[in-house]
Amino acid sequence: MTGSIVFDPLLPWLLIAALAGVAALGIALALWRGLQGWALRALAALVVLAALAQPSYQIEDRAPLSDIVLIVEDKSASQSLGERLGTTETAADALAADINARPNTEIRRIEVGDGQADTGTLLMSALSDTLAEEPRGRIAGMFLLSDGRLHDLERTPDLPAPLHLLLTGEETDWDRRLIVRNAPAFAILGEPVTLTLRVEDEGAAPDAAQTVIDISVDGAEPQRFDMPIGQDIDLPITLPHGGLNVIQFTVPEAEAELTDRNNTALVQINGVRDRLRVLLVSGEPHAGGRTWRNLLKSDSSVDLVHFTILRPPEKQDGVPVTELSLIAFPTRELFLEKIEDFDLIIFDRYKRRGILPAIYLDNVRNYVEQGGAVLVAAGPDFASADSIYRSPLSEILPAEPTARVIDEGYSPAITDLGERHPVTSGLQGAAAWGRWLRQIEVAPKSGDVVMSGIDDKPLLVLDRVGEGRVALLASDQAWLWSRGYEGGGPQLDLLRRLAHWMMKEPELEEEALWAEPTGQTMRIIRRTLEETVGPVTVTRPDGTDEEITLAESSPGRFEALYTGPEIGLYRLAEGDQSAVVGLGPAAPREFEQTIASGTALEPAIDGTRGGVRRLENGMPSIRSVGIGRPAAGRGWLGITPRDAFETLDVTQTPLLPGWLVLLLSSALILGAWLREGRRT
Fold first, then answer.
1. Which of 321, 405, 462, 500 is the most exposed place for a label (fewest CB within 10 A)?
2. What is the Cα–Cα distance from 527 to 555, expressed in whole angstroms?
3. For 519-614, where are the E strands, in sequence order?
4. Which residues have C-beta within 8 Å of that of residue 528, sequence separation ≥ 6?
5. Cα atoms in the Cβ-side hemisphere of radius 13 Å centred on 357
6. Which tens digits make up the pLDDT trace of 457-512?
7. Is 152 helix (H, G, I), strand (E, B) or coil?
């Protein structure tokens, strides 16, 4: 029990002070006039003022509360290296036993594992959350059992007691890690992108000037190079293909190295084209003559060269050639010397007129077989005797004209195969598409018919020839959609997809397997023209295989979600399709820096006058120290007893009850009056 005097004023303290001032003036006036009762008047004023302050004698019944000591155990991934985890558990048990043996003291043990989504070790977050739940006035000390590698130092709370770090790891530990900087998400095909590589040795590392590094692209056989240690090396890389390129860098594990988890780096870069070069060859002018030109010019990434015949050879108007303002077109340069520079050649209603010799068209055929692309937008010219089919291009075109031109209205339709082909799948609103008014009858020889017209006759035929691609659109009426005829249709989407499929954009491949990673989960996607697909074989980083069954999400597209059990490079295979994908970082934050160190925590520890001790040197003893005193010394660490208590009961007894105030003040005032009256 403890007692004290407390006040519960009946009036505000400011008003009581004002009344005291008035009373003091009255007493001073009485003293100046020589009144004999001034002292009694002063005592009466003091009694009244004291009564207004209402003093009481308060007795509290208190129960002492125990001190709380926090023990935070770091059990993140970096603590699994060497003997750190065992050392942590042994030290935590010994520390808990020592503290429990102290009177009026209890402990709170907090375990901290790995954060979500590679956030690393969140020691300060765990400590902050615990302090928010415990009464800060009872916290006597905090002990962190860790390697000192944390990733939320900015969340360090206001610490109410000494903070100590019991450091795991050994002074002889050393580690080698690989760092990759300047890795972009996208890179332009054909242009080198520079990555900065660095190999660093940390801790008690042996003297070594260089090591070797293995570089593998898309899971292929790695190439080995020498790599200096401790120097930044700029490595130019040219992506081999469009779409996702997975590049893996690996430094072999060295003898006695702490871990090899940070010896590998995965870089995933999407290859994109900078400029697409297109050669548009136009024949006889027609109502939709600018359809392809407008489409291609609307794409800022397309460089267009337009070859058009404004004055055919048979035109005889008597104008001397020397007076013509037309510029001779560099046909030889385009069709013989620089044809390989183009990604796509489009023949729009072009027919043989003697301007492009057969050798030029034969070179176009050879260009396709070696990886180029040709699109023929056919009109009546394709069915004529001067059709470009009657040229070396017949060897690569997927359909043969029957010489019949059908002039009647019809609605283009997507075939069953076209529903699964990436060029035409997903085109919406087919029932409301406007009609086209002409179709060239063709007989397919090869390829895939993805759109049909009158009486289900082939309208759009796609084919692969050698390394290249060919498309035949058996109508010159696509422009009606762009004009909104009878409601129009998806002309822009269709023609743009068609052009990009021919230029081998990865997202429009009809047979493809890829994965879209998100953290440790990936969405496996298989696109095919077949109606079914087999299971996808997933090869994990440790070499084990697992088969995943895919479900059809849309015609020709099969998907499945897969969560990888570990971080690293996964290989996917189904039939003749394969892909590689990296899940998570190859070197998680936990393994970026693995050498145990208390440097990061020193500012917070010094602010509480705590200390850092290596557990390999033995457990320190625990002492009690006063608040604000040094809490660490040679071989010992301190906690500060808080002497906290809980108040069970409070009793208050008024020192000036009302009857006593009335009696005293009346007696003193009466005495002052009698004494002053006796003088008169």
1. 321
2. 9
3. 521-527, 536-539, 545-548, 551-554, 557-563, 568-574, 577-583, 612-614
4. 420, 510, 511, 556, 558
5. 5
6. 999 999 999 999 999 999 999 889 988 899 889 988 888 888 889 888 888 888 99
7. coil
